[in-house]
Amino acid sequence: MSARRLEFDFEWRITLFTLLLLPLLISLGFWQLQRAEEKAALALSFAQKQARPPAPLASLVDRSPESLAYLPVSLEGEYRGEYFLLDNRMQGGKYGNEVLAVFELDSGELALVNRGWVRADSSRMVLPEVPVAPGRVRIKGHVYVSPGSPYLLADEPLASGWPKRIQAVEMDKIRSALDGTVFPYPVRIDALQPGALSTDWQVINVSPEKHTGYAVQWFSMAAVLALIYLLRSTNLWQLLRGRRSSNE
Which residues pair with 116 in a beta bridge? Predict the structure, then answer.
């Protein structure tokens, strides 16, 4: 009779290990599903905003960050000679910088226009060669609102002279280096616009489908762990083998 009854043998070390690891694996799976939903919502928001006609940048000063993020805009004015080099930007496996040019609007206000990526010296000994931007132009792009604050190891002051190399877009620090009112967020220029360099703007770095795949992996690991624990702590495998032998 005992061979036909499910019996448990709880070994405390294996039980403790399973109780600690199993909830972690499951929570990681649900976290990846949440990230997939967030990325899908972000991609949908970007697509909806990109369908709108570009709005003049000068008319958007009082808008909230949420409404400005990825909003198509147009700028009329001219590039000034100053620009910032956003350091340590990789594209196609190559090291480079993003060029954030100071753009003076016809209204007299300033905007920071991200012209795109240029290849740079990985040793940082030599500044990259940046093509000269044209004179008075009308350009299109979209407002970029960073999803979070940049993580910096130390507060690095801006160097004197131009161009200025920066590790992150810190608008307060950038404003202090300019003489005028600056739009609070940078504008990422569209491809083929006057002054555009290599523009490969990534709205989402990991697709929702990939996050879902990661979730499936975490849930699968949790299921395997639960199965291994069940087979180790019970006589389930012997019961299954006994039923199979009796059926034969």
Answer: 99
Both structure tokens of 191: 């491809």
Element holding 86 (H helix, E strand): strand 72-91
Nearby residues of 199 by Cβ (< 8 Å), 6 or more positions away:
116, 117, 188, 189, 190, 191
**Calpha distance 86→117 (Å, rounded):** 9
**Which tokens in the block code for residue 50?**
């990109």
- Name residue 110's amino acid: L
96-105 pLDDT per residue, tens = 999 999 999 9
Q: Are 188 and 201 in contact (CB under 8 A)?
A: yes
Q: What number of other Cβ atoms are within 10 A of residue 69's Cβ?
A: 19
Question: Residue 205's CB: how many other CB atoms inside 10 A?
Answer: 7
pTM for this entry: 0.77
Give pLDDT tens digits for 13-22. Answer: 989 999 999 9
